[in-house]
Amino acid sequence: MPSPEEASTSGSSPELQEEAISVPAVPATFKSLGLIDPLLEALEQMKFKAPTDIQAEVLPHALQGRDIIGVASTGSGKTAAFALPILQKLWDDPKGLFACVIAPTRELAFQITQQFESIGSAMGVRCVTIIGGVDIQPQKIALAKKPHVVVATPGRLLEHLEETKGFSLRNLKFLVLDEADRLLDMDFGPKLDKILKLIPKERTTYLFSATMTTKVAKLQRASLSNPVRVEVNSKYSTVSTLLQYYLLMPLPQKDVHLIYLANTLAQNSMIIFTRTVHDAQRLSIMLRSLGFPAIPLHGQLSQSARLGALGKFKAGGRSILVATDVASRGLDIPSVDIIINYDIPTHSKDYIHRVGRTARAGRSGKSITLVTQYDVELVLRIEQVIGKKMELWAVDKEEVALLRERVDEAGRLAATEIKEQGIKGGHGKKRKRGGDEGGGGKDDMDRDDDVVEAGMPKMMKKSKARR
């Protein structure tokens, strides 16, 4: 970690001076950090015994009213780090539309809302989730009641700000950009610029992420004022309790090796990450036809189906979740034993977010990445970024050979079922009509579709070939 002097000058400008803060040596408690009794009571009920590093670092500065840039590994308690100071300030000055949290994906927005409601339970805090993919009318009614906290994806929030009568964030006190690097890196940029013009400049702003870009222009866009930079991990890292493996095979044998892993690791809960919607759907059908309790999660499912898939997986009703990168960011699923990368992500930080779904909160976990002859360079790049070498996962070649015929048959059945159901390929257009779209074509403003989430160029969006 750089010294405070180095960190405060690297990439900074006269307009944006950052302070770098080191991790405290003396263990802090939530009470010693200055939190009020209603929050302490809620934290005790939630069994939060002691603040994490990011919470211990952020809270003193946040409670002083400073803008924050927070960088910490996934699973480190970032949500509570920004929720606690906001709720404490809300207790002192209770007002409607007090804070707005912007997140890149709908599932993450729901999760943030749940955490705000849990921590603010003793205060009677009112939150609303504003996302695309669901009917817009109930959201308009909820916003008219002036909730304390609005948690939103950028597209739907902008739609409400521009078109919902009587709704504005003119009196907003707090703005949070969660997974800020994703919000700033993707084509959310123009929407964020419009949102920032519609909210007051006199506010407190927090940027949080596991992997933070330090480009001054992007941080200035968020209009931070003399922020404190809190960094409790190296820029890109995976946790020490995660065991990382790779499995080498020819491209045509990818499916059979995946089924081999599912078979040998059948007693574990796992998330299988794919690059395309088509593969997520196809592999979930294949796994189910071979007797595995699998369920898909991707951006072309309706929002209720997406939440239903997450709910079943969290509750243990399904032990295998086959997902695109919609599920890679920020989601806290308590007990995921194994992450399998069916496709290697093109961006190293997406790999870090994927494998961060396991080995959370001090628990151990494993990740296994399927590597074909075309993927070696990507693996070497990831190893260089994380500073670790992946170990080779041992395979029983005879057992793989025995599975080949059944897997090929399951693959043919899956292809037929997808064709019969008319399921779009990995990069098809979103539905233009449907009961839960709520905003028609405007719903596309929420760019959490899988192509962008996987870091793939937009020009490839219509290609149906599996990479």
Précis, in short:
The chain is an alpha/beta fold and 467 residues long.
CATH topology of the largest domain: Rossmann fold
Sheet of most strands: 8 strands, parallel
Q: Give the mean pLDDT.
A: 81
The main sheet orders its strands as 1-8-2-7-6-3-5-4
Unreliably modeled segments:
1-24, 425-467
Strand content of the residues, in percent?
A: 5-15%
Q: What is the architecture of the largest domain at the second tier of CATH?
A: 3-Layer(aba) Sandwich
Number of domains: 2
C-alpha Rg (nearest Å): 22 Å
Number of helical runs?
17
> Which of globular, elongated, flat, extended, rod-shaped describes the shape?
globular
Helix content: 25-40%
Give the full name of the CATH homologous superfamily of the largest domain.
P-loop containing nucleotide triphosphate hydrolases
The N- to C-terminal Cα distance equals: 37 Å
- Based on helices, strands and strand pairing, what is the structural class? alpha/beta
CATH class of the largest domain: Alpha Beta
Strand tally is 15
Motif (Q motif): 28-56
GO biological process, one term: gene expression
GO molecular function, one term: RNA binding
Biased composition (Basic and acidic residues): 434-445
